[in-house]
Structure formats: C-alpha cells, structure tokens
Amino acid sequence: MGTESGKRKPRVGGKRPGSVDGVLPVGVGLAAAVAPAAPPVTRPPLAPGVKYRRILLKLSGEALMGGKGGGIDPVVLAQIADELIDVHSLGVEMALVIGGGNIFRGVAASTAGMDRASADYMGMLATLINALALQDALESRGAKTRVLSALEVQKVAEPYIRRRAIRHLEKGRLVIFGAGTGNPFFTTDTAASLRAMEIGADIVMKATRVDGVYDKDPHKFPDARLFRRLSYLDVLNRKLAVMDSTAISLCHDNKLPILVFNMTKPGNVRRVVLGEPLGTLVVEDRREPRSSYTGTLPVAEEERTHGK
Asked: Which domain holds residue 126?
C-alpha cells in the first residue's frame, strides 16, 4: 500500500530518521527550524556626565567640502571622523544622516528644468557617496560602522531595516543612514527626523557652520540675534532656517528635541553630548518650567552675540 507520493521514506534500522519506535516526534520540523537564541548584547557604559544615550547627528554635505567649491576635503573628513570617534568612546550610541549638497542638489537641479523626482534620486545617490566616504574614514581609525541605505544598493550598503539599525547601535557600531527616506520630494532633514524617531533617539543634533539659529544671517548682519531656546511653533511661524517644515512638524508631533550647533569648532559635539549649553534647542516649550515666574513669555529667548 503506497503513500500519497507513491514512495516511502528510507528507513534506518527499520525506523524512519528522527523517529522513536517508528513514530516522528510532534513538532520536530518546527524545532529544527528554530535558531538558538542570540546572546544578550552588553551595551557599553556611559561616561560620567553624558546627557544623551542615543543621538542622531545630521551632517550637511557642504560640511565635507571645507574650503573647496565642491566634493570632499580629506582633511575635513578626517577631522569629522576623529570627533565622532571621540564622542562614540563616551558610550554614546550614534547614528548619522548626511546630505549630498557638496556633490548634487536635487532642488537646485529641478529649478533649472530637471524633473524633480529624477533630481531627488540623483541627490540620494550623492548622499550614499558621502556615507561611504565617511564610513571609510571611520573604519580606517578602527571604528565599526554600518551604512544602511533607503535605496537598494546591496553591493555597497545594507538595506535599511529598522530593527537591524537598532541592533547595530546596541552592538556599539556607528550607523550611517544613506539615500534619505528613499522617496523624492523629501529632504535629508526629514530623513533625519524620521530615522531618529524610528530608532528611539533622545535628540536630533543638526551640525551647521554657525553657532545656532539666528533671526537673520549673522555673516551679513552684525546685529543678528542668536536664539538659545525656541519652540517648534516659533520655528514654523517665523520660518527660521532650522530644518524644513516637514522635519519640524514630525519632531513637534513626537516631541523630539532638536539641537542646532556649530560643528566647525573642534570638540563641540562632545560638549553638547555632555550637556553644555551650546547652540539653539528647539523643544515643545521654549522655557524651562519655573514656579516663581509670573510674567508674560517673550516670543523666544534671545541674546545678542554680535557687537558685544
């Protein structure tokens, strides 16, 4: 009498493989398929005084140019890599989003007549070039890194998977997110806000060439005022150049703080991670709660930084 396939499985010593007295144990297939549990990850301890356990640092592509008109300055790239490794040694889990403006800007190309979606995809590829350059600079100094791309380029980067990104961070790796969100019409600022929320970052830190957010261009106006603390609505209503409105709205909806600071000064990333009051902090409420305060809140906390 045959089986459904017309054949019977071979017997070993009168029994089928894996059977006891000729009977297969229940769930043997499932048990064989289940992999052994991964060992728990031991996260490195935080150095004394560190304020943030997990951060997302947003770097502009222009930051890599240095004094050049475009491309990547190896000296600047090395300085950035040294500073990131120094902060990472404090036990901070670091993820990075980098722009591509030093190579190609999709918005600028679209204003010149190029299809916006095509221009944005080209910009995403530019961010991948910068991500790979930063990865090389970090790994040449002994750091362990991973580049995760929102576009599928498996020859050079892993595809972005949220749980994989978090696992890399927990294992002490520097994670670089490339290709923005993987969608046209979204900036790398929006990608930074989105990825920060997905990985559970404590704060988004945006590195710039000035000390924070000003009411006007400090390079052109010596009386420009630096904001020390702003609310999300202040930024949106005043149309301040912090991040684009989509990125600000995402942070507002999820109460994710944003810190804008000057990265051209060596050691500033370490200082802000250790809680020094540098740059401009964008939060839900522009002031720390003070029980003795009874007056009217100003529009924003400002201080004159030029002309003093």
From this structure: 54-288+295-304
Helix/strand number for the chain, H first, E second = 9, 11
Structurally, how many domains does the chain consist of? 1
3-class state of residue 282 by DSSP: strand
pTM of the model: 0.80
Greatest alpha-carbon pair distance for the chain in Å reads 100
Residue-by-residue DSSP string for 57-119: EEE-GGGGTTTSSSS--HHHHHHHHHHHHHHHTTT-EEEEEE--TTT--HHHHHHTT--HHHH
Phi and psi angles of residue 285, each rounded to the nearest 5 degrees, phi first = -115, 135
**What are the beta bridge partners of residue 227?**
213, 302
Strands 258-262 and 174-178: unpaired
User: What tens digit of pLDDT does each residue of 191-236 get?
Assistant: 999 999 999 999 999 998 889 999 888 888 888 999 999 999 999 9
The answer to the question of residue 9 being in a domain is: no
